[in-house]
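step 3/5: co-fold with fe (ii) ion
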Amino acid sequence: MVDSVATPEPQLLKPGIKAPVAETLLTPRFYTTDFDAVARLDISANEAEIKAVIDELRADYNRHHFVRDDEFKQSWDHITGEKRRAFIDFLERSCTSEFSGFLLFKELSRRLKKNNPLLSQAFEYLARDEARHAGFLNKSMADLNLSLDLNFLTKNRTYTFFPPEWIIYTVYLSEKIGYWRYILVHQHMQEHPEYQFYPLFRKFESWCQDENRHGDFFKALLRSQTKLWKSWTAKLWVRFFLLTVFATHTMTVFERASFYETIGIHPRKYNNRVIQETNNTSARAFPLILNTNHPLFFWRLEQCSENNLKIAAIKNSNQPGIVKFFQQIPPVVAILWHMLQLYLIKPIETEATRGTVL
Ligand SMILES: [Fe+2]
Ligand SMILES: [Fe+2]
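step 4/5: write tokens
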């Protein structure tokens, strides 16, 4: 049994426009980077693969996919209560993260135009796709009489600076985990159409292929930079990013367990499968992957989630600020402890098996 937290009633910025949820470590981030350093990347070591992926992006297989067909044209007022709140929350989170991708890719495309037209072109295709994804999700929110003011979001969110290397690691992982998140929901809906309470999920099959291609582009870029996979520091960073992405995923899935239960998905099984599949996929890009079969791997991830729920409960309590501060220390220390133990689990080397496992 998974503890699920009731989703709060959405707050409004103005009528029909939802106030963005407060930024936390778990809400989707907005990124900025050293654009000149990206422009200077020497991609010659893997140029053929990069060009092949760009050709795929240029083909724009999904140009006619994001159409709101007749199925959407009806009232959705029958979706009520926790189901409605949890669904709005899901849409907002997804829309924000798609839009965050759009802003980063658009800016990369703009800033690289002069000095690196090939990569600039690639980022333009990525931005095109993410704009479609974010727009489609925002229109789904509008079906529930709410939408996100994406202009407001652009101007008011905090932008986190990541050097290009971190951007390549994290965006690669977020595209691939995004692929698995969408495709597994889609497969579940195919097997259990009774849970398809809104037609958005029908769109996920081709949609997730966009994310797959985006991930392939970042994989090709990563493999063009030897230092990102062929050094001991790269191995330490890869372990760190795999772990933080999986821990964040676990915490958000369990925090939003009620949404997954609404659509008949078992949060724990879903979380484990998404992580295992993403971990296996990333063997194509990374010099190592995590050992998800270690007996304590998922247990420790869930301990992080348990402690995260404790922190949320403390934050929502009526205690004075200073009391809340001290109450949060033990769960924060527990999360860091479990993360450290997870980090120390012996990883699985992938370079030796490259070519045979792919
Ligand atoms: Fe996307
Ligand atoms: Fe994407």
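step 5/5: annotate
The radius of gyration is 20 Å.
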